[in-house]
Structures are given as structure tokens and as C-alpha cells.
Amino acid sequence: LRGALTAPSSQDWEQRQEEDTLLIERILLLVRNVLHVPPDPTEEQGVDGDASVHDRVLWALHISGMDDLLKFLASAQAEQQWALHVLEIISLMFRDQSPEELAALGQGQAAAEHGEDTQELETLRQRELAERRARALQRPSRHSRFGGSYILQGLKAIGD
Questions:
Q1: What is the dihedral sign for C-alpha 60, 112, 71, 37?
Q2: Which residues are in the Timeless N-terminal domain (predicted)?
């Protein structure tokens, strides 16, 4: 599917034949219709962690690179005529997901990355404090106020 969709979509929309436009539309409708099939709970009685048929279809679309092509069709200025088809496909891709789960998933990754960064900064700070302590121990702990000796010539000393 991706190969059949890539060739016509790589041409400028002015150079496309009517057949190419129909081919793109039919492929998008096919993907939409495949994703639109409702889940059958009696058929999908697998183990709890097992992927559903819908998830396997999404994985196949990802492996084939169809998701990248859909992103291109959605973002390209010259391909605006396919925007509603692509929007419908994307909404069907996320049909089993609740907005709360998707938002929590994104924040979970951001929180994990933030936690890793915080841990790394704390480790660097501890290392720097240890280096400062080591340098402080190497110096004498008491400061000598005697700055050296001075010699004055031509003056009498106090004691003689």
C-alpha cells in the first residue's frame, strides 16, 4: 500500500493524473475502513498483555511506514485535499484510548526524563561538594598571619 501511495504522492498535484488521485483516495479509504472495523470481544479473548487485532493493525501500519506517509499528507500544504481522510484515520487509530490515558502517558515520560535529569544533577553536585572538601583538607586549616620577614637597613633596633 505504501509503495502504491508513495509514487503518486511524490508528484506535484498539478502533474497528477486523475487515476493517481483516485488511487490515493481509494488507499486512504481502505486504511480508514480497515481501522473502522469494531472489535469483537468473543474473538479477542487472549492473555491480558496480548495485543488486540486493532493494535496489531496499527503496528503493521507503523512497520510499513504508512504512519509517516499519513503525517506527510496531513502536514503538506499541497495535500490539503486529503486532510479529512487523514484526520479520520488518525481518530480511528486512537479510538480505544481515553484522553486521560494519553495525557498521563506523555507526562509519565516527561516526568521520568525530569527525574533522570534531576538525579544526574544531584550526582554532579555531590561530586563537586566532595572535591571542595578534599581541597579544603589539603590546605592548612589555620591561616598564618605572618606574611614573611622584612629587613630595614640604616635604622637602630629596639634592643640595640
A1: positive
A2: 8-151
On whether residue 112 sits in a domain, the answer given is: no
Give me the DSSP letters along 77-122. Answer: GGGGGGHHHHHHHHHHHTTT--HHHHHHHHHHHHHHHHHHHHHHHH
**In degrees to the nearest 10, what's the CA dihedral of 30, 33, 34, 40?**
-160
Contact 104, 47 (CB under 8 A): no
How much is the pTM?
0.53
pLDDT, tens digit, for every residue of 123-136? 999 999 999 888 87
pLDDT in tens, 85-125: 899 998 988 887 888 877 777 666 666 677 788 888 899 99
Tally the domains of the chain.
1
Backbone torsion region of residue 154, taken as left when φ is above 0, otherwise alpha when ψ lies between -120 and 50, otherwise beta: left
